[in-house]
Amino acid sequence: MVRMRNGRVVLALAVLAAVAGLRGAGGQAASAVEKLPAAPQLVILDTDIGDDIDDAYALALVLRSPELRLLGITTAYGDTELRARLVDRYLKAVGRSDIPVAAGVRTPSGAMSQAAYARQEPAKKHADGAAFLLSQIRAHPGQITLIAIGPLFNVQAAIERDPATFRKLRRVVIMGGSVYRGYDDRKSGDTHRPPDAEWNIRCDPAGARALLAAGVPVFVMPLDSTQVHLEQAKLAAIFSAGSALTDQLTLLYHEWSGAGAWKTPTLFDPVAVTYALRPDLCPAKPMRLDADDKGFTRPVEGAPNAEVCLQSDEKGFVELLLGRIAGETAR
Does position 148 have pLDDT exceeding 60, yes or no? Predict the structure, then answer.
C-alpha cells in the first residue's frame, strides 16, 4: 500500500515537472490548453427550403461549419413532405444522409420553385417535425440552438404540444421581421423603405407571438440586417468551385432563377446561421417586439423579449460565406 502511494506521488511530481518545463519554454502548456477547440454547438435547422434560394445557402453554411453539429432538419410551410425530399436529395449528394430529416406542419401554399429537384428523390414518409424537435430537446436539454429560417408553424406546434420542453432550448435564432427597414426596391435601388410585413412572420404571426412569449432566449435577424445581395462575380465563384455542395447550389439556383438573365440572390437566411457562428458580425440589442395579425413586427415599450440585430457586417458575412462554401473547406 505504501509502495503504491509513493509511486503515485513520484508520477504526480513527474507530471508537474513536465508541465512546469513546458511553461518555462514560453508558456506553451497553458496556451495549448487555452486553444483546445470548444465542443460544437448542437443545432436544428427549421427551413422552408424549396422556394427562395437563400435556404439552400443557409444549409450549406451549416454543413461547412465545424462549430455546429446538425442534429436534424425540419421542413416548414406548404408541402413539407416535398421539401423534405429536396433536403434528402441535397444531403445524399453531399454525403450527409446520416442527418435526420423531418417534415413539419403542412399548410396551403403555392408551387415550389425547386419542386423538380425535389421530385427526383423517391418519396417516403418522414417523421413529424414538431415531435422530432421536442424529442431532441428532451435528449439534449439546455444545449440546442434552433435556427428557424421559415414561417414558424413548427415552432408554434412544438410550443402548443409541450411548452415546458420547448423552454429547455438553449436559444432560438430566427430570420424574420422588419423593424425599421422594409424590403429593398431592387428596381429603384432604394434600401431605406419603411417596415414591411416580412414573409416568415406574415405567414404565421401567431407563431411569432408564441415564440416571443415562450420563455426561451430569442435572437431576431430581421430585414434590417439580412438583405445581403450576392454579387454576380461571387455567385460565379461558388458555381465554379466544383464541389458536390456547390453543384447542388448551382442546380437549385437555376431552378429558382428560371430561364433568362441571372438573378441576384438575397442572402436573408444565412445571416441567421452566421449569428450562431459569429455574433460579432451581427451585434444584437435587447428589444421588445410585437407581431400583429398582418405580420408587422413593431418595437414596443416594455421588458425585452428578444435580442435584435439591426445592422450586420455585410462584407464580413460574405467573406465568411464564400470561404466556407467555395473555399478549401468545400473541396
Answer: yes
Rounded CA-CA distance 301/216 in Å is 20
One-letter identity of residue 211: L
> Would you say 71 and 144 are in contact if contact means Cβ atoms under 8 Å apart?
yes
- Residue of 90, 99, 36, 129 whose CA lies nearest to 250: 90
Q: In the chain, what's the furthest Cα-to-Cα distance?
A: 86
Cell output for 177: 421581421
For the domain bounded by 41-330, which CATH number is listed? 3.90.245.10
Q: Grid coordinates 442572402 are at which residue?
A: 267
C-alpha 310: how far from chain center: 18
Which residue in 48, 62, 72 sits closest to 151, CA to CA?
Answer: 48
8-state DSSP, 299: E
pLDDT above 50 for 138: yes
| 188 DSSP 8-state letter | T
Mean pLDDT (the chain, rounded): 89
Q: Show the beta-strand stretches assigned E in the chain.
A: 41-47, 68-75, 101-103, 127-128, 144-148, 171-175, 218-221, 284-287, 289-291, 297-299, 306-309
Grid cell digits, residue 240: 465554379
* 3-state SS, residue 214: coil
Entry pTM = 0.87
* Gap between the Cα atoms of 258 and 307, Å rounded: 37
* Per-residue pLDDT band at 24 (split at 50, 70, 90): very low
- Has residue 31 got a pLDDT over 80? no
- The answer to whether 68 touches 277, Cβ cutoff 8 Å, is yes
- Kindly state the helix (H) or strand (E) to which residue 136 belongs, with its residue range: helix 129-139
Beta carbons of 264 and 51 less than 8 angstroms apart: no
Residue 180 and residue 15: Cα distance in Å, rounded? 59
Give the domain ranges of the chain: 41-330
d(CA 285, CA 283): 7
